[in-house]
Amino acid sequence: MNMEWTSYVIGGSFGLFLSIQYIVFYLFLIRSSEVKKFRSDLLYIILIGVFLCLFSMFGLMHLRVGSSILFRFKLAAGVGVVNLYVLLMRQILVSIKDLTFVETDGYKFANKRYALGFSMFSIALVLFILLFPVDIGGVTLSSRIFTGAFLAYLLTVAVIEAVEFLRIISRERGKITPINMVRHCTIFWSGILSMLFWGAENVPSLFLYQKVLSNAGSFYMYGMLFFSIGLSMNLIFEYMEVMTRVSETNRKLSDLNRKMMEEIRTAQSLQISLLPLDKQKDIRKYLDMEISYMPMQSVGGDYYDFYVLDDNRVIIFLGDASGHGIYAAMIWAMLKVEVEEMIEEKQFGDIAAAFTTLNKRITRILENTYSYATLFCCMIDPESRHISYISAGHTDQLLYSSQYQAVNKVRNKNPIIGSFKNAKYTADSLPFGQGDAMLFFSDGITEGTNPDGEQLGLERLMDMFLEVARENQPAADIISNLLMKLEDFFEGSMQKDDRTIMVIKT
Questions:
Q1: Which CATH number does 3-235 carry?
Q2: Which of 223, 230, 239, 421 could form a disulfide with 363 if both were Cys (CB 3.0 to 4.6 A apart)?
Q3: What is the Cα–Cα distance from 151 to 123, expressed in whole angstroms?
Q4: Buried (b) or exposed (e) across 115-149, using 16+ Cβ within 10 A?
Q5: Which residues are bridge partners to 289 per DSSP?
Q6: Higher pLDDT, 279 or 117
Q7: Helix, strand and coil in the chain, % to nearest 5
Q8: For residue 424, pLDDT beyond 90
Q9: CATH architecture label of 275-505
């Protein structure tokens, strides 16, 4: 097998590999947004690989049979490669211009007209080659004329594409990443140098009237081989660009996550400082009380607080702000500020009137935000053992009666806080005798689910509370035993809402 045969076989193999490589890449990422963005580029390269295979196949057949029609088919395939290369380069130039984020419709339209005109010219040239007998490298005058015209065609295309590519690259250089610059330049120079290889094979024939390079192999195929390698390297550079983007994205996400965690820790520290931890000792002088607070995230939207009024009555709040995380915590903090201000103004002597005022204040802040809060308030007089309470949209709370050895729902229906500015609130009352226990909780408890997706529910919570409260233990033991029963039910399943439990006992 001589060098010309070898060059055709090797060049055709690289063309086949190029097509398969890009077809696999295209099919593997067909649904990816990145592939959709560069779909035209991929199709052009796949077709270039196909035409390279055709060029090689017709070249081998021409060497074996010597038919002029096979030579013309080979030459037509070569023109097809040049045309596809021009379309590919124009697509790349448009994508480079798009990086400027300025109006590029005029440039796109001009490129479409140029690409259409060049494609029409290439089709006409292919028809001429197929319909009229030509023999580049022959000794006849017509062959020399066609050889010169074909060389002029290749040189003109190379010059036009080089001028336009270098003009755009020099203008947009600062907007192109280094890897993309290498990728675009690889495609450009592999195409340009390939056309120079194609022309180099016929320059001696034009001036020396004979084909003198066949012993060194086909320069046509060397150009095709060089072009195939350049387009294959483009895929490697594209992969490197993707990995660089992924690495940069991960770095930015890591930095963003670090900053968010720092902000969350700051918010968590602020919320912890706002929790009434220092008040619990004062409240325990009047009531036996214990709390368990479990936010779903680092900060939560469950609000609780308690105060001792001037007449030694104890007022307890437990609420739930809409949403989760920092957003709910902001509503939580705002609600606490408003309640404390009203406590200082001594407006909670009548809790129904106080809630009407509190709702007006909160609604002015939350209007048009579609946010709200549910709030349960309980005022306890330790001497008279009497409770006044009000529920602003909060779930029913539970009261254990030691006299009747039963747990009852503490119900009171009033509008939620923050949605209806002119809402009016009413309170209810009930006795709170010796040995009675009251359970305050947020809906994160009753709406919590086990691994099977089954909700705890209010009835099951009532049964658990009855079981632990009838043993007449302190509030801390009631909370501890109740939490163990809850954990047995939830079985460690991830909580989907904040969970707060408070027990008071006389």
A1: 1.20.1070.10
A2: 421
A3: 17
A4: beebeeebeebbeebeeeebbbbbeeeebbebbee
A5: 504
A6: 117
A7: 60, 15, 25
A8: yes
A9: 4-Layer Sandwich (3.60)
